[in-house]
Design goal:
There is one protein chain. The chain is of the alpha+beta class. It has a single domain (34-156), classed as Beta-Lactamase (2-Layer Sandwich). Helix content is 49%, strand content 15%. The protein has helices spanning 2-20, 34-51, 78-93, 97-105, 109-112, 145-156, and strands at 56-60, 66-71, 124-128, 134-141. The protein has a 4-stranded antiparallel beta sheet. The termini are far apart. Residues 1-20 form the signal peptide.
């Protein structure tokens, strides 16, 4: 029974990886610094304020460990864990969480039963160094997933 469960989880993991693979693998670099995380968070908050959004911004390092978290006034408490989850998902799978959302929307059965702490909605993106390596990830939650994605893109200067 235990072997069957392990094999089933392995098959799901392989299926998820195959379904969400959109680019060649990118290497992890040194983890994001607190100073860099502060700058990205400030850019996210400035954009959110300009749009009258209330969001939580989470930044994780290459190990998926929380480096910085901010919750804007009046943002629902549930967005804290969602933002962290989006950041961890983007970091751990080396791709934007929107890729997972698209697979689920397209009927990706493997993702519908996935229990690996994946948050398959827009609002999480890897953060890249100048030399193209992943140094962490950002997750934003509080508005619609598309609006969360806008905040992420503004924070990273990719909008």
């Amino acid at each position: 029974m235990k072997t069957t469960l392990i094999l089933a989880l392995l098959a799901i993991t392989i299926s998820v990886t195959a379904q969400t693979q959109t680019k060649p693998a990118v290497a992890y670099g040194p983890s994001i610094t607190l100073d860099a995380a502060k700058k990205i968070t400030a850019a996210a908050e400035a954009f959110a304020v300009s749009k009258q959004y209330t969001v939580v911004v989470a930044i994780v390092d290459t190990g998926g460990n929380l480096v910085m978290l901010t919750k804007m006034d009046n943002t629902q408490l549930g967005s804290i864990e969602v933002a962290i989850g989006k950041a961890k998902t983007a970091n751990n799978f080396k791709r934007p969480t929107k890729a997972f959302e698209d697979v689920v929307a397209g009927g990706g059965a493997g993702l519908k039963v996935l229990g690996l702490n994946v948050v398959p909605v827009e609002g999480g993106e890897p953060i890249f160094s100048a030399d193209g390596k992943i140094i962490g990830a950002i997750g934003v939650s509080g508005m619609t997933s598309a609006q969360d994605g806008e905040v992420v893109k503004a924070a990273l200067g990719t909008k």
